[in-house]
Amino acid sequence: MPFAKDAIDEMVKQQPECVFDDEGIIQKGVIVRHLVLPGQVQRAKNAVEYLYNRYGDGIFISIMSQYTPCTDLGDYPEINRKITAEEYDEVVGYAVEIGVENGFLQEGESASESFIPPFDLTGVE
Fold first, then answer.
1. What is the pLDDT of residues 23-72, one digit of tens each?
2. Mean pLDDT computed over every residue of the chain
C-alpha cells in the first residue's frame, strides 16, 4: 500500500478540495474507491480509518460492494464468493462511527449480473 499512499498524497496535494457541479459531478478533488473483499472486513476498516485520519473531509471515500468472482475460483475459497450484506454493513457502520461524512455507498444489487461486463473484448479494437 505504500505506493497507493504516495499517489493519494500527491493527488490531494494537487487538489486539496472536492468541488462538484450542480448535477453532483465532481469537477476537481479526490475520491478514493475501496473495494471490500470477502472475509477482509478488518482490512477494509483499516483502509477507511487510514484515509479518514490522514485526509479527513478533504476527500470522498467510496466504499464499494460489487466484488464478484467472474470465473471458478474453487482453488481460492476465501474469495470465491460475493461479500455479504453483513460484511459491507460492518465496514459502512465503522466509517460512520469514526466520523466519515464525505462518502459514497453502493446498493447490494451492484454485484448483480446486470452490472458485470462480459469481459469478452466486446468494443475493444
1. 999 999 999 999 999 999 999 999 999 999 999 999 999 999 999 888 88
2. 89
| Residue 77 belongs to some domain of the structure | yes
Selection from 47, 66, 56, 71 nearest residue 107 by Cα: 66
Q: Write out the residue range of the structural domain in which residue 65 sits.
A: 37-109
Residue 104 domain-assigned (yes or no): yes
| Global confidence as pTM | 0.84
Residue tagged 469481459 (cell numbers): 119
Count of domains forming the chain: 1
CA dihedral 91, 13, 23, 88 (to 10 degrees): -10
